[in-house]
Input
Amino acid sequence: MRVCVCGAGIAGLALAWWLERDGHDVVLVERAPGPHGAGYMLDCRGPGYEAVERMRLLPRLRARAFSLSELVYHHGDGSVRDRFTDEGPAADRVVSLMRGDLEGILLGALSSRSPVRYGTGVEGFTEHGDGLAVALTDGTVEVADLLVGADGIHSRVRALAFGAEERFIRDLGFHTAAYVLHDSETARSLGDALHMLDAPGVQVGAYPLDGGRVATLFSHRAPAGAPLPADPRARLRQVYGGLGWIVPRLLERCPEPAQVYYDRVAQVEMPAWSRGRVALVGDACQALSLLTGQGAGMALAGAEALAGELRRGDGVAAALARYEERVRPVVRRLQAEGRAAAEEFVPAGTP
Output
């Protein structure tokens, strides 16, 4: 089978790995000009942990993992409110690492048979009885048996096959941003802890990485449907500029907009994840929001499930139906948990 996968994030790379292992011909395209940046810390747990075990990639994840021994909460002025020591008994079944590191491991696990064609996306497709012709943005056309959109919450493939994203996005009422900066002094001051600052309508997180780097995570309440800023740095300064502690230093060292992740906190809810010979996987169809902490894990699990159903060899339509039947109940439960968590995610108030 020849499969065109659009999107070289966690879901797309994992799916390509499984398809390649099963002997399929994979065309893997990614609209971004190169691999994604460091991103933010994520936990690989539950079904995602089990998936990387079966991929035999767990040692590589553990080599890039880091552990934070303490969680420290601060008031808006920077004073310490609470401290918690991480002594969770299930820590041996969880791997915490940066999103970019996980994607790098998945990319490195692919063979040379499935190179990522960066700077290339899907322009359109035409479906015929036994396949599709997929028009790419570089002017080429790929003939495939299946097109899979693994291109994230703002999926181009989903828009082409199902319509405008507004029909499927559930805005949870927050905007979030993340970036990594180089600041050895701040990294040392954070020790071996994840620090969180809460104030009315806002939350800021900071934690140390290797090499004198600091990872940040900003979240603030925003009306559902509020437009995303053209320059995230200006918006971050506007919302968080009045806070104390190390926040002014973090804002001062904010990198260029291209290196800042900024988006709304949202879920994707769809009545169906496939149409004809087009299917979706990962955030394109099942975005949970960062509030669940399981988006990466479900992307890995969903990719494995889709590949597993295709492996049975009884046709694309039957495989896609079973894939959705298998994964949707878990996604539905986790999305409900995410909506409940949204009520208390950031302190009430106006940022």
The chain is about 35% helix and 30% strand. The CA atoms of residues 40 and 344 lie 21 Å apart.
